[in-house]
Fold this sequence. Notes:
By secondary structure, this protein is of the alpha/beta class.
Amino acid sequence: MNKGGMMLLIFTEDEIRDKVKINEETIHVIEEAFIDLAMKDVQMPPIMQVDIPEHNGGIDIKTAFIPGYEMLALKVSSGFFNNYRLGLPSTGGVVLLINVFNGQPEALLYDNGYLTDIRTATAGALAAKYLANDSCTKVGVIGAGAQARYQLMALKKVKSFTHVYIAGKSNRRLLDFKRMIESDLNVSAIICEDATEVAKHSELIITTTPATSPILQSEWIQQGTHITAIGSDAEHKNELDPYILEQATAYVCDVVAQCEVLGELRTALQAGTIQETKNILELGDIIANKKVVRESEDDITIADLTGTGIQDTKIALYAYQKLTEEK
Length: 327
């Protein structure tokens, strides 16, 4: 109990997993988060980050207050990318829901990063929904961890793809990944020798790695390709050759100011391939105002997703609702 006498509800990862899935509901929840960010006076401070390079990891804290909601989420999440060697997931963390009327903690969601995985995957699906060609059937994924699988699960809700081309560092993980997605999604998964081969075959590419230097080069990208870059969420990370942003017909951020610091935009600004940011669109603005970004099937489009506190608040409030609703 907290000092005010109110009971602090605690929910375990298993309880949360039982109630929150990747489906049309959760995609809609995150779609609303992007719209709220574009249309409401949301208070979302910069991400607080602690990098732990000697263990290939880091911890960050995200939050956002959305007018009209009774609680906000304070999320502490971790990403430690050597954990697979220990038999542990790469991500972890907890979410604390705090009452915005009196500041009292109401619930602790001990999700071990599951809600972050869900909101990140559904954001990726929304980026593809609004930016990729409707006709795309061949998807490329670089990285074979949990988020790569979640991205494909969410994407399947908005795109009818039939083939997945995958590349990564570990042959064992790639084989496991291939088996899982073929079984879960009823698609054909092809393990590629490298990212070059993935780009050659794919109409939509998702990057889900902790890379610190480009894993996709501009000369590999085919006309008509959409790229969703997920991995660059810290100042030292970088998945895309900055010249890819220069050749893109449309480059879209989740939050421009955040991408200037953490995302692929940071690298492009440093390289000079992007000179200014005032005309860069945000995904929430596209969704809220129904803007058409792709004008041709040959356009190259990019979504730079660094993850936002408003997504964490919205998915946590949704989880709380599902966990506490009467049966």
